[in-house]
Amino acid sequence: MQSADEITRCPDCGHQIRVDRRYVTWCEKCDWNVDPTPLLDLTPAWRLRVEQRLVDSLYRELEQGAIHRPGWDAARITANLLSVLILLLPLAAFLTGIALLLFYRPLWFSIILALLALTIAFVFRPRAGRLDDHQLVHREQAPVLFAVLDEVAAAVGAKPATAVAVTDEANIWYSQVGWRFRPVVGIGLPLWIGLRPQERVAILAHEFGHGSHGDMRSGWLIGNARSVLEGLGATFSESPLDEARREWGAEELSGGTLLNRMVNATVGVVVRGLSAVLNRLELRSGQRNEYLADRRAGEVAGSEAAAHALERTLLADTCYDAMLRALRFPGELAPLDAVRRAVTEVPAREIERRLRVSRVHGTRTDATHPPTYLRTKLLRTRPATSARVVLGTDQSRAIDRELMEPAEQVLLEVKAEL
C-alpha cells in the first residue's frame, strides 16, 4: 500500500499522479512537467510549424505504405552536387598553388602565396574514416561476438564487420574506415551493458542496416564534404572563449580582433550557410533511412524487441552517469554492474515520460534521427514480426566475458581522465 506522500495531484488538471523522488514528477493526463528543463529554442514559430508538417507527412507516408530506400529525388541530387563543389575547394587550392609556383613572379612572393594555397589544400583535403583512441577487438579475440555479428550482417544483407571498437560512449554505431571502407561496429559500454540480449540484436541489425541500404550520410562523398565544412567552420568562426571575452567586456578591440570579426561575418557566414543547406537537403532522406533501419531491426530481432531497444536508448544518459558515479566513488558494485542496476531500476513510467519528451520537443527535422516516439509507434502499428536471429542469455554473457579485457582498459582510461 502506498503512503500518502507517494501520491499528489497535478496542479494543472487535478489528476492523481504517483511520486517517485528519484525521478521527475509529471502528469500522464496533461503532460504537466513532462520536461522540467526544456531547451531554449529560438527558431521562429513558422519554421517549427513547417518542420512539424514535414515530420508528420513522412510518418504518415511510411505508416500507410512501404518503407523503401530513399530514391534519387531533387534533394538527394542537389546534396551530392553541392558536396562535389565543396570537395573541389582543396583541389582548386592545390592547383592554384602549383600555378603560382610555375607562372607567377617574383618567385619569392609566389612561394609565399603558393605555400598558403597548398596549406589550405592539405588542411581541408578529403580523409578516409579513421578510428582514434579506441580499444579494437578482432575476430580471433571474440569468436562468440563475431559469430553473432556475422549472423546479423547476413540477415540484413550487409558486409561482415572486420573489427569492433569498444568505447566509453553511450552509443552503438557503424562506420566504414580507411580507403578500403572496412565495416567497423562501435560498442559503447554504457549502452551495451544496459541492453537485454534480444535488444542487442536489434541495435546491431539497425546499425548494419545503414551499411546495407546506402545511407548517404555515411557515404564517402557527403561525409567528406561535411568534414571540410566543419574544418572551415572551426577556422572562420569565433571560439567559445572569444564569445565569453566579448560578453565579459574583456576583449581588446585590436586590429586582429576586428579582422577576426570581419572574417567571421563574411567567410564564416558562407560556411555556416553551406553547412545548414547540406544538412537540410539530406534530412528527409536521412530520417527515411532511420525508419528503414528500424524495419530491418524488427525483421531480424523481432518488432517488439526493436521497439524496446529504441526505448532503452532513451536511458543512455542514465547509463553513462551510473558508470561515471561508480568510477568516481568506488563501492560494492563494479562500474558496469552499476549500469545494469541503474537501467533495471528505471520504472516504465519514467521511460514513458522520456518518450513523451521526444514527442513534445523532438519533432524538429534538423534532428539526426526522427522522434523516438514515432519510431516505436511505427514498429508497433505495422504487422508484428518474429525474430530471425536469437541471442540467448548464455551467448550474451559469453560476449560480455570476451569484452571484459578491452572494457577494463576503457574504464581505466575514463577514470584517469576524471
Report on this structure.
With 418 residues, the chain is an alpha+beta fold. It is 61% helix and 6% strand. It has 16 helices and six strands. The strands form two sheets. The protein has a four-stranded mixed β-sheet with strand order 3-4-6-5. A two-stranded antiparallel sheet has the order 1-2. Helix 10 runs antiparallel to helix 14. The protein is globular, with a radius of gyration of 25 Å. The mean pLDDT is 83.
Please give the structural blueprint.
Elements: E1 7-9, E2 16-18, H1 45-64, H2 74-103, H3 107-123, E3 135-137, H4 143-156, E4 163-167, E5 172-177, E6 182-188, H5 189-193, H6 197-212, H7 220-235, H8 240-248, H9 255-301, H10 303-313, H11 316-328, H12 335-345, H13 348-361, H14 372-381, H15 393-402, H16 404-417
Parallel strand pairs: 4-6
Antiparallel strand pairs: 1-2, 3-4, 5-6
Estimate what percentage of residues fall within beta strands. 5-15%
Q: Which structural category fits the helices and strands?
A: alpha+beta
Major sheet attributes: 4 strands, mixed
Q: Low-confidence parts, pLDDT < 50 over ≥5 residues?
A: none
Number of strands: 6
- The string of secondary-structure elements, in order, is EEHHHEHEEEHHHHHHHHHHHH
Work out the helicity level.
55-70%
Strand order of the largest sheet: 3-4-6-5
Distance between the termini: 43 Å
What is the molecular shape?
globular
**Integer-rounded radius of gyration:** 25 Å
What average pLDDT do the residues reach? 83
User: Count of helices?
Assistant: 16
